[in-house]
Amino acid sequence: MFLTKTIILKIANPDNDLVETMQKYSDGMNYTSEVLFDKGKPIPAMKLQQEVYPYLRETLKLKSQMSCNIPRQVAGCYKTLHKQKKAKWQKVEFSPSSMTFSYKRDFVIDEDTVKITTINGRKPYSILNYDYAKQYFDGSWKYQASKVVKHKDGDYYFHLCVEKEIPDKQITNASTFMGIDVGMNYLAVASTTDRKCSFFAGGEIKNLRNQYKSMRKRLQSKGTLSAKRMLKHIAGKEKRLMRDV
């Protein structure tokens, strides 16, 4: 069994090369998105790469691995959108807030530094390594494709994806098992094979979500700029609420 985690590390010294690379990466994502949107349906990532690779390399001056990552990301995004039953075929736009890197091909990392390929070559950036993160540099974890992300606070962070194989849990000697059902009326109902049950009521959370729903309807009917700002604020609050629950 494989355990996968994402470790968030703050980049201490972002510079113009990093910012410009992220902007170019975003430009490449949007160009690729437009090409795929015009097709009217998803196409394989490799076929998309063949169409956009020359533009990404020659016009945007992106490095080779980035020019391969972009069509894979965009193709995956449209494939997911296409699978949603009620989703319309629409162009996806990307903001300059993240970019993906492949381990060893365009980034390497140790406890103190991440070396990232930018449009002006590979450059070292200091990272703020927190105590909890040091365990992921002990040599037992494998590094996967990771991201540089610009957070809402304006700072840049490296989202390091790590993977480790761990032993499967042996359950042959277990005498009792638990099943958990999640929902809205009850956040969770836990029941065991020895017929014991625990209920976790969700009435308060359900009421809060209904309140947010009513507020959204009122604000959407107004359509003003301040109403749109409030809608965005409410969406963030509701998202944090459900995440914490």
UniProtKB/TrEMBL annotation:
This is Putative transposase. It comes from Methanohalophilus euhalobius.
